[in-house]
């Protein structure tokens, strides 16, 4: 597929096609990741860092030089209700380089977001937030979490932890309802919906299939757990040349006619089609 050049890079406040996760114990990989095409580069202090290494990983994050971090530097802390999560948040307040975004795992209520928002606001830090919904309780609160605070810019569905929590098979069909619920909550609140990772690192076809299915549900991006996954994800979530051309025609025809209903290529198109076309152009870094 041909993709459109010039898609704007995210600063964690806008479009995210791909978020690339790097363990905070692999700092050399993270600092060398500026050449990767991911929109967001995420350092992880949670699952990928064993308990005995969390202190040292936290200290390494606290001393990051702002000149060294890649664009879109973001940080996943430990669950905010845990002692490790509170230590992570305290570290962020004094860190040499504040992340553009903090990712909150295992969010189960709006309170989780509100707590961190209040702490950051009190410290005068404008870092935005991103919530992962990955438990039964989190899914139950999806809509309330999505609408909790303006600082929240995205939701992610965490399939692995959700399956561990609920006993659901980690396959597409059994997870369809949960995945759809997260996408619906995010889009209804006007924020990004980013699908969780595909863990099979050697199956590019499965990665592409997962990404396309997620896009069909309304997801706007996907998490990568290996640099080798970034290009496939970017391709899926970047509007193709054909998509942009059609969207451009639709917007142009609506403007030319001044009508709320148009006919193009034998199809009747109304306001929803115009909004979808405008969204396609925005995701391609275009405006009209």
From TrEMBL:
Gene3D superfamilies tied to this protein: Phosphoenolpyruvate-binding domains
Query: Where along this sequence does the record place binding of substrate?
Result: 76, 134
Residues covered by the HpcH/HpaI aldolase/citrate lyase domain: 37-227
The cofactors named for this UniProt entry are: Mg(2+)
UniProt entry keywords in alphabetical sequence: Lyase, Magnesium, Metal-binding
Q: Which GO terms describe its biological process?
A: oxaloacetate metabolic process
Q: Which GO-annotated molecular functions does the record name?
A: lyase activity; magnesium ion binding
Q: Where does Mg(2+) bind?
A: 134, 161
SUPFAM superfamilies named among the record's database cross-references? Phosphoenolpyruvate/pyruvate domain
Q: What is this protein called?
A: CoA ester lyase
């Amino acid at each position: 597929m041909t993709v459109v050049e010039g898609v704007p890079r995210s600063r964690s406040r806008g479009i995210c096609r791909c978020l690339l996760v790097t363990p905070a114990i692999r700092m050399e990989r993270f600092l060398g990741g500026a050449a990767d095409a991911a929109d967001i580069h995420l350092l992880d202090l949670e699952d990928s860092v064993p308990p005995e290494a969390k202190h040292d990983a936290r200290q390494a994050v606290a001393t990051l030089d702002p000149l060294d971090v890649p664009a879109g530097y973001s940080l996943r802390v430990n669950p905010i209700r845990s002692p490790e999560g509170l230590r992570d948040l305290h570290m962020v307040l004094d860190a040499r380089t504040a992340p553009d975004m903090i990712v909150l795992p295992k969010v189960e209520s709006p309170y989780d977001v509100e707590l961190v928002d209040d702490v950051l606001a009190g410290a005068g830090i404008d870092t935005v937030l991103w919530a992962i919904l990955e438990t039964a309780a989190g899914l139950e609160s999806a809509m309330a979490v999505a609408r909790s605070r303006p600082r929240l810019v995205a939701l992610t569905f965490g399939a692995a932890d959700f399956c561990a929590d609920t006993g659901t098979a980690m396959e597409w069909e059994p997870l369809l309802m949960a995945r759809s619920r997260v996408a619906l909550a995010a889009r209804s609140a006007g924020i990004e919906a980013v699908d969780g990772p595909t863990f099979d690192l050697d199956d590019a076809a499965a990665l592409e299939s997962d990404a396309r299915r997620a896009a069909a549900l309304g997801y706007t991006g996907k998490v990568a757990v290996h640099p080798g996954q970034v290009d496939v994800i970017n391709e899926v979530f970047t509007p193709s040349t054909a998509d942009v051309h059609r969207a451009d025609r639709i917007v142009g025809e609506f403007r030319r006619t001044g009508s709320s209903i148009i006919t193009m290529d034998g199809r009747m198109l109304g306001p929803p089609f115009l909004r979808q076309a405008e969204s396609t152009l925005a995701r391609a870094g275009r405006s009209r």
